[in-house]
Amino acid sequence: MSAPNRPTFRRIADEIRAAIDNGTYAPGSKLPTDAELAAQMGVTRTLIGDALQLLTTDGIVTKTRKGTFVSSFTSKINRDANTRYTKSFRESTTADGTKARGAFDAELRARGLTPKTDLQVKRVVPPNHVADLLGIPANEVLVVSRARVMFAVKEDGDEVPVQVATSYLPGDIAFGTVLETPDTGEGGLISRLADLGHRQSRISETIQVRRPSEAEATALNLTEDQRVYEITHSARTATDRVVEVTNHILPVHLWNLTYAWDLEG
Amino acid sequence: MSAPNRPTFRRIADEIRAAIDNGTYAPGSKLPTDAELAAQMGVTRTLIGDALQLLTTDGIVTKTRKGTFVSSFTSKINRDANTRYTKSFRESTTADGTKARGAFDAELRARGLTPKTDLQVKRVVPPNHVADLLGIPANEVLVVSRARVMFAVKEDGDEVPVQVATSYLPGDIAFGTVLETPDTGEGGLISRLADLGHRQSRISETIQVRRPSEAEATALNLTEDQRVYEITHSARTATDRVVEVTNHILPVHLWNLTYAWDLEG
DNA sequence: GAGTGGTCTAGACCACAGA
DNA sequence: CTGTGGTCTAGACCACTCG
Predict the structure, then answer these.
(1) From the Cβ of B35, is strand C under 7 Å away?
(2) Which residues, 6+ apart, have CB-to-CB distance to B42 below 8 Å?
């Protein structure tokens, strides 16, 4: 009623969305082929494709060469920017008695998922905006880059990529230290930076939403029409030096973000 | 090179986007009609429509019954969650010597735009999640609702809607006070709440990205395929009472968000 | 009434994954 | 090889806006 002349392809999308919500199509199951749906609904295959593309963009279904499948990820993961950087959360003990290895680890375990991270440590010349934040000349100085692709492993063993993040650490701090090794141990990067005498005291993050780059789309299994948060995170010490810049890329349909802070007078 | 088999409609979108970026089509100007572009490029009108829809979703062009127009808004507005709630920013003096009326006001003037706000003050039963945050029973208690639609007025007098925001204030605090009047004066809502003995001390915000509701799409001049940030803002006093909940809706293509906070040990 | 974009069909060809 | 979704055309009808 609210939309009297709602186009057919949107009505079809609504219909299928409702069918997924009410359990007619279970998470992970295969939908009928476009051609079958077209026959059922008495429309062209083109229309079904348009309708399903809307659901694909929302992350509700995934289209492959083998058919259309209902996404198995339903609820969103919460990224709480404040607790995630506290020592207690980063080093929190998980259900199986092991200690969490950094913020992302604790975050996923809190949701009953098992985290898995692919890491590549390199020395690189950072992107300009990162060099800028680190206070070093552009296109010149090498820094340590810790590029991660993070997965949520479900109970059935399926690995879903949920985030890519790249941390940049100044060379004079990180070269030749544990910060260039794969496992940063209990409490993660932030704890190790503190060990090295660079305890972080103030964080700032800027957020934008955009289409994924080609590389991001591939890594996160996204289409060009989906959207990601890009969070540029920078941490400075009490002496006001930026000792870490991290670029987080998160599909918007998988995450909520939370922030909290005190007001001064 | 990077995408060998890039579909035609995406290539066309890229082409037009580039033409807009390099000034071939100026901000605010009218593009050729779909039919003309189709003829120029030797493709069907359908394809041009698909291409332009990509740009519409990104907020780069606007389609009307009168033709396709290049958006006049280029850069994004920055919403700095921290400075925006400081007293000095909210009450900052603008170029013309007048005092800013709250956070949004100061935000836009910093960008050379003139803010304009349509306000409707009512007593309403708040949405469930708001009642929850305010610590009152759902579907029952009246609170003060201050619903705003905010515009950026350009130099040529054009008014672009950039945000809708609705603040909810507990009745026992707000009924019969200045909080039910249209103009909350210097420093805005927060200053008046402080005057009434409810100085805010801690803020938390949660962010998600979603399609706009029908009402939001109408108010903000969006299509169903564009995306908005929904920011749920709540403020509590030193005595830990939530005295304000505000729901902010911002088109993602118009805004960047910024947060900053201190780490404890 | 003329011109605009929005929608939809019917049918075609394609690339790609899997048996 | 077959079946899948992805793309594209040609052409049609529509609703809306404006002169």
Answers:
(1) yes
(2) none
CA distance B43 to B35: 9
Q: Say how far apart CA A73 and CA A61 lie, in whole Å.
A: 10
pLDDT at residue B183 in the model: 87
Question: Can you give the pLDDT at residue A119?
Answer: 94
Q: Measured from the CB, is A65 under 7 Å from any atom of strand C?
A: yes
B49 closest-nt by C1' vs CA = C5
Give the nucleotide with minimal C1' distance to the Cα of B68.
C5
Q: Do A204 and B229 touch (CB under 8 A)?
A: no
Domains of chain B plus CATH, in order, are 8-70 (1.10.10.10), 77-258 (3.40.1410.10)
Q: Which residue has the tokens 């590389």?
A: A215
Residue A28 CA to residue A37 CA, distance in Å, equals 18
Interchain CB distance below 8 Å, B259 and A81: yes
Q: Which residues neighbour A92 within 8 Å (Cβ) at sequence distance 6 or greater? A: A99, A100, A106
Query: Beta strands A255-262 and A77-80: pairing type?
Result: parallel
The answer, for B206 touching chain A at a CB cutoff of 8 Å, is: yes
Could you say which of A85, A224, A229 has the minimum Cβ distance to residue B263?
Answer: A85
Give which of A126, A135, A131 is closest to A240, Cα–Cα: A135
Residues of chain A with pLDDT under 70: 1-4, 87-103, 265
Q: How far is A79 from chain B (nearest CA, A)?
A: 9
Token digits for B141?
């208690």
B58–chain A Cβ distance below 8 A for any pair? yes
Residue A1 has a pLDDT of 46
Report pTM. 0.91
Determine, for residues A207 and B252 on separate chains, whether the beta-carbon distance falls below 8 Å. no
For chain B positions 122-161, those within 8 Å of chain A (CB to CB) are: none
Distance of CA B240 to CAs A33, B133, B246, B262, B263, Å? 54, 12, 17, 20, 21
Q: Which residue does chain B place closest to A204, by CA atoms? A: B260
Dump pLDDT digits (tens) for B225-264.
Answer: 999 999 999 999 999 999 999 999 999 999 999 999 988 7
> What are the structure tokens assigned to A234, written together?
């920078």
Residues from chain A contacting residue B265 (CB–CB below 8 Å): 87
